[in-house]
Amino acid sequence: MDDRGYFIGSVRRFESAKEDWVMYQKRLEIWLKANKISDNDKVDVFLAMIGSEAFEVVLNHITPEDPSEKSYQELTNILDKYYAATRNQIALRLKFLSRKQQPNETIADYILELKKLSRHCGGLANSKVQAKLLQKGDSLTWKTAHEDALAIETALKDSKKLSGLSEGSGKTVDKSGSSDLTRIVLKMAEIRRIRIKKSQEEPTEVKRLVIPGDIITSDSDYMRGHGTYLDDNKLLATVAGVVETVNKLIHVNPMKTRYYGEVGDVVVGRVAEVSQNRWKIDTNSRLNSILMLSSVNLPGGELRRRSAKDELNMREYLQEGDLVSAEVQSVYGDGSLSLHTRSLKYGKLGQGILVKVSPMIVKRSKTHMHNLECGASIILGNNGYIWISPILSQDEDAHDGGFIQNLEPVPLEDRETLVRLKNCILALAAQNVMLFDTCILYCYESSMRYSVSELLIPETMEDVVEETLQRLEQGGT
């Protein structure tokens, strides 16, 4: 006992029928260290703690000498030799070999039990898993056996689900088909094992999450980046986010943040103000973006210098509240963005639905404008604004010079498609899934068994997103 006046925790007396001596000794040494027992008191405390059974073993080995006159190492050596000799190795091996996987026992739980008995693999309940492991021969290790068993078990569970779906649809599978299915399952398990091994071999950068005030590093060799500040030669975080290091530069990427544009980004924005020779556009940035009159196409695609008359007619082209798609042309010194719509694929947007998500989950790609097979067009703005609309013909778009004026009623079927896409995007965003065209299309197809309104139920959203992720994983995307 130290100057605290009390002991931390307790260790019960040793009983060989209930606990292995090696395990007990490790626990006891941790307890002695935690309570700061001095070397002078260690022997007396040890003899008092081990209990009558172990104490009698010590006495029988050193009589007529006094146990308290022995060193701590001598006492532990006596007990180590005694309890190691009393172990029946044949009985332990028999117990290990006879240990089988229980009906409701998972692979993970079964492995924990095996580790208590031995370091060698054996006793799996599933014959397919056994056969696969036996093919490895002498090259089989505990690590590879563990990975293979988990992979095959997962694949077999998936195959049962597929079989259940086939039976529910009225299809039958003959014996030859069953053997083919088994081979497919084993192949899937092998692919999964290779992926696990590859991911373990590849060096991965550990992402560190910090909150404001957390110390990132005390190393003065690093340079301060965004989201950090220096205090008493320590680099601290100013925002909650993930620490990233580029050479000697450390910065923090916030978990939730406004959009920081880059040249070439595709954005969707709303006109906030009409000023002299320019429109101010809300693009979910810290500052409103600037769209100059000289950076837009005139209606009809006319190419000429902008005149004073064009400046007076600016509200006829774009007015407050209008939605536009544009591209980032440059970034000003204060961080605001300069936009342009000089390409015919950009310009004023007509009828559709605007969905707002975090800019962090919009995947950067070469193309952000897609015509989906479901009959809708989407613009995945890098700023987190996503525009969903009916598909427009290229002739109609080109004729208007980027200013879409089609106000015809949208058919009910098309409106349902647009709303379903919106709900799918919101479901993916709720699970922080990266958004791109294939992901959204898979989610749309997975949602077809539900009504549009049911996609607003949290359980339904999770189910659809889970199925989407499985399809993406199987497709290698």
Automatic annotation (TrEMBL):
Residues 264-342 form the S1 motif domain. One of its GO terms (biological process) is U4 snRNA 3'-end processing. Gene3D superfamilies: 2.40.50.100, Nucleic acid-binding proteins. Keywords: Exosome, Nucleus, RNA-binding, rRNA processing. It holds the Pfam family ECR1_N. InterPro entries: Exosome_cplx_N_dom (IPR025721), Exosome_RNA_bind1/RRP40/RRP4 (IPR026699), KH_dom_type_1 (IPR004088), KH_dom_type_1_sf (IPR036612), NA-bd_OB-fold (IPR012340), S1_domain (IPR003029), S1_RRP4 (IPR048565). GO terms for molecular function: RNA binding. It is found in: Nucleus. One of its GO terms (cellular component) is cytoplasmic exosome (RNase complex). Signal peptide: none annotated. Its main location: nucleus. Belongs to the RRP4 family. PANTHER family: EXOSOME COMPLEX COMPONENT RRP4, PNAS-3 RELATED. This is Exosome complex component RRP4. It comes from Holothuria leucospilota.
